[in-house]
Write a structure and sequence with these properties.
Layout lengths: L1 E7 L8 H15 L4 E7 L14 E9 L4 H18 L3 E7 L4 E8 L9
Antiparallel strand pairs: 1-3, 1-4, 2-3, 4-5
Helix pairs in contact: 1-2
Amino acid sequence: MNNLYVYVDGCDLANVSDNLEKEFKYFLSIWNVSGSKFINQQFPRTPDLSPEDYPEWNLGINIKFEKLPSEKIDELVSFLNTLSSNTDREFVIGYYDSECGISEDWCFVGKEYKKDSV
């Protein structure tokens, strides 16, 4: 089983988290990919953070799938491009291996990135 994540890039999300949550949940309700779920996981502040640093915050979608059809990938990237334009935020797409506990960012979608790079 493959594990894909799509998160807002960055941790300064307090002012936009409610709007992003609403948008992600709506997208999931119409996207219809089994194994997809909304994630809003804010981690506690750790001693190694300086006062101006924000603690980690995973806000987005986790997807467990065998094979994700190309049209579903296109729908996801289109949604992220639109959401980026509307919120001035960028998004990271990556892979998580739950057995090893290793994650790897694959690409970014948003104002600084083009759809062709996904």
